[in-house]
Write a structure and sequence with these properties.
This protein is mainly α. Helix content is about 70%, strand content about 0%. Strands 1-2 form a two-stranded antiparallel ribbon. The longest helix is centred in the N-terminal third of the chain and has 44 residues.
């Protein structure tokens, strides 16, 4: 056996003798297994619940009786965001953004019923998922297992003895690193059970799963290097432990919590109330379709009459009220889209700034990689919002066209006893409106979105590996 292998074997033997270390390792393995199973079960329950509610909403929409089309515009419909299989590993921002939307005419509602708004505030500190365990708790275990790996040899005086006997400082460091790296691999192994559960599910994508596995492997390897590096640079194990705990607290706990606050201050997002007031103000400037003297809609009326070659709206071959609904929805939806784009642009700037803190915190880089590959990041949420708005606009305009083509203008204006019945159209028209089907991102898009985080993690890994060189030279000077 080589010197590196012998040193690694001896280090593992010492770890096995440490009952506290064994208990901590066993608890972490059990915690990871529990997190994987609980997260998977929770995700399955969420998926089934959302699918059931989606089917119920579709059934209630299609079960509406004969109605005036504009009544169906205001009756609206509910849709629910489905999550991909990888959300069981890392649910990302889903608990914060909401998972359902009410779609109706003249309004663009936001997503509602996020878990954080309905559950204990403790959800804000992180859910028990495989991603959370590996990002936060696993590095802590590596610290407690490896903080004295090299410092212990210096304290006991065995470091100089080993160097005198011909063991190089490089072999010593590599042996200790190999032992801790094996422990890191064992720590991450239970999380792969989540992948085994996910792999056979519809929609599971091999590319993103591979990126996630590579990212977490790099992250745990990085922490193994950091632990050995600090242990090699200090003289006492106690100092190494304190330094590593401080480093863990800053890199894993403090910076990931503080970075979003800095981003929110640098790129302030208007409140919902401010946005609603601004939208109402701009809607007022667009025009009032109920005011016959409104300049915009007066011009629209004249344009419509010229198009059909008539002089009165009563002579139009279509219902003018339906045409107004089509034009009004087009204007308001354009305005809503403009405000949504502004909001998402600010949120994207905040996200980029937060991700930029990955330069000083590998935990942030890993989180960005993990959520992007799982499709549970801001881009995934925006994909749902965009598709929901596209569906809402199409649904409302279909109903507006039904009013324009299937309801006469005379009946629409009539006030007699039988007018209400004449305005109604067959409920078969509601059945013809397609249901909402969310189109998830492709594997290539998810992998591409996760590459910046993976690149930063690999850069951290290279820098940490290079930092071992001066640490080796520092140890080599211990030779008498």
């Amino acid at each position: 056996m080589s010197a590196i292998t012998l040193i690694a074997h001896d280090e593992l033997r010492l770890m096995r003798r440490n009952r506290v270390a064994l208990v901590a390792f066993a608890l972490l393995v059990l915690l990871t297994l529990a997190a994987a199973l609980i997260s998977w079960s929770h995700q399955q329950s969420i998926t089934e619940t959302r699918a059931r509610f989606q089917a119920q909403a579709a059934k209630e929409f299609e079960a509406q009786p004969d109605r005036h089309p504009h009544r169906m515009v205001h009756f609206g419909n509910f849709i629910f965001r489905p999550l991909g299989p990888l959300a069981a590993f890392d649910p990302g921002i889903d608990a914060f953004t909401g998972n359902s939307m009410f779609l109706e005419g003249h309004r663009q509602n936001s997503a509602n019923f996020g878990d954080v708004r309905q559950s204990s505030l403790l959800v804000r500190f992180g859910q028990l998922t495989p991603a959370f365990v590996l990002q936060v708790i696993a590095p802590l275990l590596l610290i407690f297992l490896g903080y004295g790996a090299v410092a212990r040899e210096r304290e006991r005086g065995t470091l100089r003895q080993m160097l005198v006997q011909g063991v190089s400082a490089r072999a010593l460091v590599m042996g200790k690193l190999l032992a801790l790296g094996l422990v890191a691999a064992l720590v991450g192994l239970p999380a792969m059970i989540a992948f085994l559960l996910i792999a056979g599910q519809p929609g599971a994508l091999a590319g993103p799963m591979l990126v996630i596995a590579l990212g977490y492997a790099a992250y745990l390897t990085l922490w193994a290097i950091i632990v050995i590096l600090v242990s090699a640079m200090v003289r006492r194990g106690r100092d190494a432990l304190l330094a590593l705990l401080a480093l863990w607290a800053v890199l894993v706990i403090l910076l990931p919590r503080v970075a979003p606050d800095f981003a929110a201050q640098a790129h302030a997002l208007p409140t919902r109330l401010e946005t609603d007031i601004a939208i109402a103000h701009d809607l007022h400037k667009l025009g009032d379709s109920h005011n016959p003297d409104d300049p915009f809609f007066k011009a629209f009326k004249e344009k419509t009459l010229r198009h059909y070659g008539v002089t009165r709206v009563e002579d139009l071959p279509v219902n003018y009220n339906g045409m107004l609904g089509i034009e009004g929805e087009k204007l308001t939806s354009g305005l809503f889209d403009d405000y949504a784009d502004r909001s998402f642009a600010i949120q994207a700037a905040q996200s980029r700034m937060t991700d930029g803190f990955g330069i000083v915190s590998p935990a942030i880089s890993l989180r960005q990689l993990s959520m992007a590959a799982a499709g549970t990041d801001l881009a995934g949420h925006r994909r749902f919002i965009t598709q929901a708005e596209t569906y809402r606009y199409d649904m409302v305009q279909r109903l507006n066209r039904l009013q324009a083509e299937a309801v006469s203008y005379a009946d629409d204006k009539a006030k007699d006893a039988g007018a209400d019945q004449r305005k109604r159209i067959s409920a078969d028209h509601w059945h013809a409106i397609p249901q909402f089907h969310f189109q998830p991102a492709s594997a290539a898009d998810l992998v591409k979105a996760s590459l910046p985080g993976l690149g930063l993690l690999l850069a951290w890994l290279v820098v940490a590996a290079l930092a071992l060189l001066p640490a080796v030279c520092h140890l080599q000077k211990a030779r008498p």
